Amino acid sequence: MNEPILSVRDLVVKFSLRGQVLTAIRKASLDLYEGETLAIVGESGSGKSVFTKSWIGMLDANGWIDSGSIMFEGKNLATYTTEPEWLTIRGKKLAMVFQDPMTALNPLRTVGMQIQEALELHQDLHGEQARAKTVEILSEVGIDEPEMRYSQYPHEFSGGMRQRVVIAIAVACNPRILICDEPTTALDVTIQAQILELIRGLQRKMGATLVYITHDLGVVANVADRVAVMYAGEIIEYGTVEEIFYDARHPYTWALLSSLPQLGIKGEPLYSIRGTPPNLFADIQGDAFAPRNPNALKIDFVKGPPFFQVSQTHFAKTWLLDPRAPRVEPPATIKAMRDKYERYAL
Amino acid sequence: MINNGKETLLEVNDLRVEFKGKGRKPFVAVKDVSFRIYKGETFGLVGETGSGKTTIGRAIVRINPTAAGDILFKKRKINGIIPKELDQEVTRRIQMIFQDPMASLNERSKVDYIVSEGLYNIEGFKDEEERQAKVSKALLEVGLLPEFASRFPHEFSGGQRQRIGVARALIMEPEFIIADEPISSLDVSIRAQVLNLLSELQRTKGLTYMFISHDLSVVRFIANRIAVIHQGRIVELAETEELFDCPFHPYTRALLSAIPVPDPRIEKKKRVLVYDPGCHDYSRDKPKWTEITKGHFVLANEAEIRQYEAMAG
Q1: Last residue of a domain, one of B246, B265, B291
Q2: What is the CATH number of the domain that holds B215?
């Protein structure tokens, strides 16, 4: 595998809310490799958006990086505090595509101006040059009649077309890392397929590294080379897309996959995760998933597990992988996926 | 349509729904839509944003007026002008569950009132004691505690709120429930709970569902039959597995190819089909609603019917 382009170590992100402190990210570590597509999956509130927002200094005003490091091009982004510092990175080297194209664009400015703004700010292009480049980018993201579309407002675009504009703004400066936060959740499936195809094509062309944040495991299967699963502000398992789908090891990943209607057996109840995610205002003793885990061991409630290595690329944070742990069978859905994989291999 | 000895609960014939704008000619949201829903089944209605799927649901519960066609519930016409008793009967027997439990519950009311609001409208209880008993029973049925009645919606999580939405429908003792994207706005882990709850209630109470969704993969899991709707018209209707095994209409095929499957080996190899409405030549040969194989209907003209029949073998 290539060298890491971005390296996060033991990142802790906190927010101050109504006089209380919430720990949103609890010692998350991650390496991002040049040219890959990494998907980060998890439920709402698992911290997947906050985690990536902390890389580009877009945490809400009441949030801060408490400890840990984010290494990118030899600099530690975790020490950045001021806007001018962040502007050397954000948009230029790390860009983000947001979920809802209805709210990500400014309704009062033309689409062309919104893309051009990024070019003027980061690429030092002005006037006719910037305009020509903007039209070129519009056509690159699959917008017909870019000259005419340049001077239109967002309300004149459909949802899918608006998302293309948002992508155009993000890729305008050839970022090294493109973070897509649920880029297709607000779109119809047929449009979603087109947008995923567009992002894939652009990535190939620019050679960018892609980070996908999503809760849709179908999309993950489509786009990702590697997958990281987040729960309660921690990364609990990561590996190649095939390792996660066909050979998951963490009980939470099992639960997530088993609860999918697509993998369920008709007429039988779906597996559902009991309980609710932990309260992040409180200190978490042991494994955060233990109270909801039907196979939790005694030690899970006392001491959080370290990462255990499954393969060169696959790691999971669960005591079940400790040699002393009892053998726990994964749910039927996971076994079925594993069997299916073995059949593929033949 | 062949009945297979199943009892028809709801019948929709040539339904048309229009929305009138200012001075312009009306926008036709639903046209020439016909289908039957049998007692005890789950009927899936699948389409994209703006296809008219919600409008059909709303026309059935009499929220949107119909421009043409009939809606028959237990063989009685329920659209247009109907007697007051029948209107109350419809309100009671047909209930709706909405998409967003954050938006569909009144923030200022207690759960107690939210759940029994329908009962107040139809004077569905003798005294306060009976009303409270009904609220407790409905809450228990959806897996909530009767004590929750005194709380406000903001005190609940998304999944719990959707349960309140289901309780509100159940208290009316309906026979037919229209669920409009009931799990779309919920988290992955919560979706399974709500789907399980709906199946459980169907089994114990013999309910019939119309499940409206944009997500074919979810509908596949719970529906017995699926209708695919595109721009206000149903283009194909078949039993669930039949539709997935042998889709005829090019729009259905495009939609099926676009759903992401949580299996990387399949997903990385797949080719997405794009639907071009220009592929039909309907200039002279008009399309008709035709049964190609038993129970499998498609909107097609003569030339297409021959082609689909060849595909069916």
Answers
A1: B246
A2: 3.40.50.300
- Reported ipTM: 0.84
* Interchain pair A261, B192: CB under 8 A: yes
Asked whether A318 and A287 are in contact (CB, 8 A), the reply is yes
> What integer pLDDT is reported at residue A111 of this predicted model?
94
The last residue of a domain, from among B246, B278, B299: B246
- A189 pLDDT higher than 90: no
Q: Is the pLDDT of residue A346 over 70?
A: no
SS3 label, residue A36: coil
Write out chain B residues lying below 8 Å of A192, CB-based.
Answer: 258, 260
The verdict on B260 and B293 lying in the same domain is yes
Low-confidence ranges of chain B (pLDDT < 50): 1-2
The pLDDT of residue B1: 44
* Residues B133 and B212 grouped into a single domain: yes
Q: Are residues B171 and B304 in the same domain?
A: no
- Judge whether B191 is closer than 8 Å to chain A, CB to CB: yes
Identify residue B216 by its one-letter amino acid code.
L
How far B61 CA lies from chain A's nearest CA (Å)?
Answer: 26
Per residue in A236-290, pLDDT (tens digit) is: 999 999 999 999 999 999 999 999 988 888 888 888 888 888 889 988 999 999 9
| Pairing verdict, β B233-239 and B296-300 | antiparallel
Task: Determine the distance in angstroms separating the CA of A63 from the nearest CA of chain B, rounded to an integer.
Answer: 24
Domain check: are B270 and B123 in the same one? no
pLDDT at A245: 95
Task: Tell me: do B96 and B76 sit in the same domain.
Answer: yes
Contact residues, chain A, for B275 at CB < 8 Å: 190
**Residue B141 shares a structural domain with residue B269:** no
For residues B195 and B252, membership in a common domain is answered with no
CA distance A341 to chain B (A): 8
pLDDT confidence of residue B2: 45
Greater pLDDT, A70 or A341:
A70
Domain span holding position B113: 2-246
Residue B290's pLDDT is what? Answer: 93
DSSP-assigned beta bridge partners for residue A76: A71
Q: Which of B217, B255, B264 sits opposite A262 (nearest CB)?
A: B217
Please tell me the predicted confidence (pLDDT) of residue A186: 79
Q: Are B161 and B102 in contact (CB under 8 A)?
A: yes
- Alpha helices per DSSP H over A75-234: 83-87, 101-104, 111-122, 127-140, 146-150, 159-171, 189-206, 217-223
Asked whether residue B242 falls in the same domain as residue B278, the answer is: no
Whether residue A269 and residue B254 make contact (CB cut-off 8 A), yes or no, is no
Structure tokens at B158: 């998304």
Helix (H) or strand (E) run with residue B197 in it: helix B188-205
Total number of domains in chain B: 2
Q: In this structure, what token pair is assigned to residue B46?
A: 């699948």
